């Protein structure tokens, strides 16, 4: 997740890059809660939504011992501390935040209408939001700013003096806001300047016009900017620490999982059995010489054979060993991408077969299952005509594939397990549209396509999946050979670069399978380094690990 330029609502440490995307809301766009006039509401003691203690979650020290974060940082170049704004817990937190600002607004309104009662109720500070807010701002600035600016604001934000001025009606809100804005803008990232200016504008204009709501919005804006500055500082530290954290991954994870295994909290015997099964397959059925196998795979042929099987659609996801729980989200995404690749190729085969039949024989869809197969060339065509025909067919096929991808990429209306069932009809319509086949054959095409996309026993599906598996294994071998001798940081850098370059390939299958192979090799090489001595290999074999 990348940093947000807007004023954030709340800040927490995101401990994984595989979480839901964040959202943010600017304070000037939010509707405030209704005023509450009950005395119990006015007497409630509340702390500001952003304080020194809540921002402690953004301390790098708090997350560098989190195994999920330490694992994800190896794969996600955009991993950042960020906003977490989702779910029932966040809704409650948002309500509490809105309640604080609404309570502050009510208290300030009471000060205007009944200063004596407010002074009497809150002279000692119980339930009084303003001194708590001033104290929070002061504490946060002390942790963010260099000593010179911190000392300046420490003098300006003297809570007792400010509250005395407030009670006497001589507190200069504009001057206070100008000082705070000046110091923040001299220390914050440039992208925060607009938020600082907006907070000061609301505070100063609200003060001049006696608009309590704007004054509160300005105070809210300043507090959010302080949270954003803490976020920026944490992400800067994370960028500096990333290489050392990545390089230390294997040592950190092995120590963590050794403790789990020793405590009986993790059983690696099923993972060992899974690996041994593929080790037997490789030893029995592969004709790869031992020295050639080691040169290509670095002694990991069995492991990567099994790993590549885990991402194929026909493999039951329950077969994924428990040792992959840190990579489970990535494997699910890889399986989904491979399913899309296989099904898109099936759709393209139906399109190609029907297009050839229409162009050369004028055939409509018959009752035979093999209508979507290629037909022989017309021997009467010249070489130039054949070249032009082939070029035109490739161009149309690219357009068709783009239309298929657009349908697949559209937001699903149901669960992922039913997504391809719902796509059968629109994909069939798209095939007919591009081949000019009569619409009355749509039901038959839908039935055939549905069977090929969903039935693991379908012959076309089995052939296509086998082709993709062989292609994946070939591309995977290239990348493992390239990755196996790299340091962890080198692996992270090269895998990140290759993922970007593969997306630019013109051949969609090469691009798709190449991208999956790179991600799988990246995941697998690091996994093997961590788990080979813990679960897969006997101690005498550990030296063969990548």
Commentary on this structure:
- With 546 residues, this protein is an all-alpha fold.
- Mean pLDDT is 81; it is low at 1-43, 364-377 and 540-545.
- The chain has 3 domains: 27-247, no CATH class; 251-333 and 465-544, no CATH class; 348-461, no CATH class.
- The protein is elongated and about 90 Å long.
- The protein is built from 22 helices and no strands.
Q: Count the domains.
A: 3
Order of helices and strands: HHHHHHHHHHHHHHHHHHHHHH
Q: Hey, roughly how much beta strand do the residues contain?
A: under 5%
The main sheet comes to:
none
Give the tally of β-strands.
0
Rough outline: elongated
Helix-strand category: mainly alpha
Low-confidence stretches: 1-43, 364-377, 540-545
